[in-house]
TrEMBL record:
<dbReference type="InterPro" id="IPR029069">
    <property type="entry name" value="HotDog_dom_sf"/>
</dbReference>
<feature type="binding site">
    <location>
        <position position="67"/>
    </location>
    <ligand>
        <name>substrate</name>
    </ligand>
</feature>
<feature type="domain" description="Fluoroacetyl-CoA-specific thioesterase-like">
    <location>
        <begin position="21"/>
        <end position="123"/>
    </location>
</feature>
<feature type="binding site">
    <location>
        <position position="118"/>
    </location>
    <ligand>
        <name>substrate</name>
    </ligand>
</feature>
<dbReference type="Pfam" id="PF22636">
    <property type="entry name" value="FlK"/>
</dbReference>
<feature type="binding site">
    <location>
        <position position="67"/>
    </location>
    <ligand>
        <name>CoA</name>
    </ligand>
</feature>
<dbReference type="InterPro" id="IPR025540">
    <property type="entry name" value="FlK"/>
</dbReference>
<feature type="active site">
    <location>
        <position position="40"/>
    </location>
</feature>
<dbReference type="InterPro" id="IPR054485">
    <property type="entry name" value="FlK-like_dom"/>
</dbReference>
<protein>
    <submittedName>
        <fullName>Thioesterase superfamily</fullName>
    </submittedName>
</protein>
<feature type="active site">
    <location>
        <position position="74"/>
    </location>
</feature>
<feature type="active site">
    <location>
        <position position="48"/>
    </location>
</feature>
Amino acid sequence: MQEQPESAFVPGLTARVELTVTDADTAQAVGSGDVPVLGTPRVVALAEAATVAATATRMPAGMTTVGLRVELDHRAPTPVGRTVAAEARLATVDGRRLLFEVAVTDGADTVAQGRVERVLVDRRRFVERATRTA
């Protein structure tokens, strides 16, 4: 019997990624507002980067994960020059679906918190399907 690719992942996998906020990361720069603080789209991207990092060392050959759902509360502003860290923890594996709990912190303060759901897919087939012309 062939092992299923999703069996490579077990709840509890974690990863942490950091970002030092620059002008390019602000709400003004990414078009999500008009204030010079870390923009919500960059917070989401950082949280997703942590989920990708959590699965990277166990990713079966030819497979990848793609984002399915993000639920994130962006609770506090972060000014340019400050470093934030996103930590992802794989909470649930349901077949090919991977549910992560994520937190973004600025020192001891929680900047954002939520969940990110990703799906394990065959990378080649996914890209072929996405780039097919009508």
